[in-house]
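does this look right to u?? S-adenosylmethionine version
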Amino acid sequence: MMLEKLAGTRDRVLDGARLAEGETLLDVGCGEGLIAFGALERGAEHVVFADISEDLLSFCRDTADALGLAERCSFVQAGADELEGVADASVDVLATRSVLIYVAAKQRAFEEFFRVLRPGGRIAIWEPINSFGLEERMRDAFWSFPGNGLTDLAERVRRVFEEIQPPDDPMLDFDERDLIRFAEEAGFYPIELELKAEIRPTEPIAWHVFANSSGNPKIPTFAEAMDVALTPAERERVTEHLRPLVEEGKGVWRMAHALLKATKP
Ligand SMILES: C[S@@+](CC[C@H](N)C(=O)[O-])C[C@H]1O[C@@H](n2cnc3c(N)ncnc32)[C@H](O)[C@@H]1O
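got this back:
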């Protein structure tokens, strides 16, 4: 189900990498294999699944076995910035989606990508640009919802998130220009980047869904952050104020992502 939802991104990454039949692809931070299995479907001769998580690698191994694809797959437990176990100049294409957001040493990761690609090999990297709109999210009460007299409470809740995930966290500490720079400094040429940035009204959602979800796996839910920062009476005031705004979609949504495509000369 999740794989279906993400099929559009998978296709953009594989198209961006110009994967051809018979090639070898390395999926860095493969997770459940969104990109890797897509590459096998498109006729890649061999796919290397790499991830830091042993559990996710064994999930992919089991899936490959079940699909009768095991002979065309190999599995490497490695971080994006230390691709030990992947030989120099051994892959035609390196693809990755939503992984650099977890990597502090991003320049080093690009150097590793360069090392494992054969000359003429391509990278396609899709990443959310979470620093887009960060300033506005920090400035505006309750990120994007009007604060109406509750800005001090909003600020206390915001600080809970900021302490756990400060602006220099790997998820927030880069933008699309950094990606271009990392690629160029690693030696890639030519380089192309597509950016999609959106500012629009938030989708109306049920309050309990909003309160019990979190922006990313590292941070608490909104309800948990309120529990830490506010008294029960304050929580009630915030809930009363925010609930209709959330349920009517009265916030401002800011989001961007980038697709970087580059070649090792
Ligand atoms: C959001 S998931 C994306 C999974 C997959 N690329 C996809 O498109 O569905 C992030 C993945 O990156 C992996 N990961 C996290 N830190 C990593 C690192 N430093 N190096 C390599 N993979 C990492 C996680 O284990 C997880 O599988």
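The chain is about 40% helix and 20% strand. idk if thats expected tbh
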